[in-house]
Amino acid sequence: MKLTCLTAKYGMATEVSGHAKTCCLANQQFVDSSGNPMTFDAHGPEEIWKSDHRRKILSDLENGIQHPNCTVCWQEEAVGRPSKRLRETEYWEKYETQITDITGPETPFYLDLKLGNTCNLRCRTCNSVNSSSWMTEEYEVEHANTNLTKKQFLSRFDIIKNSYSEENEELWETLEEWIPKSKKIDFYGGEPFLIEKPWKLLHKCVETGVSKEQSLHCNTNTTIIPSKEQEQVIVNFKEVDLSLSIDGIGSAFEYMRYPAKWNEVLSNIDYFFDLKRKHDNINITFCYTISIMNIHHIVEFDEFVRSRYGEDVSIWYNMLFWPIKQKITNIPEPLKVLLANKITEYISKQSKGNTYLYDNLRSVVGLLYIEKPDETKIQEFFKYTDKYDAHRNQKFANYFPDWFAELERYR
């Protein structure tokens, strides 16, 4: 049986770290014939696109082999959750008659762009690779009392700087050639509204008119609203999904998305919904990344969003797979039962009968059980959380008191 993934066949994901993968959820970064990681500071995008590693992954999928690169999708499918592979099949099937080679088209039809780590937040589930704001704090908490100097620590990020610098002409020239031929573009950060260079690429799509046939997805932390120039780019694509990445409400949000302010974000959400009302091509989605920290808060979040922004609003509950110490599968079994009951009871009480709207939330219950808990990870979770709580003068217990009381028994 074929396990073809059309997302992998048609697309490539750049990583903030300067590496590339088949998609954002892939387990493996592309490597060369010697097994060394391929990075944009040393390899051109075309070389990576045509690499033997990428071809091997696609060949295995075509031959019904569950390649370990795609473990996230295999796990989600095992519990009946529509994986990225399955969710995006319908979108890409229309191109199958045009492209029959399993390695896909000459240039990607799908670009997942993470072209730098410039960001203004230090989210609890993030790190110094994916957010520039994390760098100094991570050094102060983890390395200040070691022999590692701050200059040495910061040198770890040279690959990011060199990969996405203005001087990396091969990268930007190739992307400028590729992007007008793309059918679908995902744009992440860091924080995308703070990363300038990709907007010039998107502007080229608008300027040449190809944006009218392209889909654009942009994931933002919702603390920044687009500039007038960025807004003009957004409204000129065929269809746009603006994903508001928000991992809680009120003080819980401020803990998860430090140092963002909830009232400012609420105002920005209103801006994005107003933009949607003005432009038929724009859709708004909420994205809630589920970790050990905020899973107990998930019902309150769902209830708040649907009551404030409409019963039919789209919410994607994004499973966190890394770092492992924050993964929900490591929650002790008795607490998994508590969470499963809370989620299923909430869904069963919805009176409008549109329970299909809650399928993604319902699938979270299955995700709790895809792996047995590793007790050592709970200890790592507390140790990590305590360190950053102390540095930020915060306490997990103050923001999620009921959940902390349950977890504390397993410390």
At a glance:
The chain has 411 residues and is α/β, with parallel strands linked by helices. The protein has helices spanning 6-10, 45-49, 52-62, 71-78, 84-87, 89-93, 134-142, 150-154, 158-163, 169-178, 197-208, 228-234, 250-256, 262-278, 298-309, 333-348, 359-368, 375-392, 396-399, 401-408; strands at 11-14, 20-21, 110-113, 184-187, 215-220, 239-245, 282-290, 314-319.
Folded structure, characterized:
This protein is α/β, with parallel strands linked by helices and 411 residues long. It is 44% helix and 10% strand. It has an eight-stranded mixed β-sheet. The longest helix is centred in the last third of the chain and has 18 residues, at 375-392. The protein is built from 20 helices and eight strands.
What overall geometry do the principal axes of the alpha carbons give? globular
Strand order, main sheet: write it out: 2-1-3-4-5-6-7-8
Counting DSSP H or I runs of 4 or more residues, the number of helices is 20
Percent range of helical residues: 40-55%
Unreliable stretches, pLDDT < 50, 5 or more residues? none
Estimated share of beta-strand residues: 5-15%
Radius of gyration: 21 Å
Structural class: alpha/beta
According to DSSP, the number of beta strands is 8
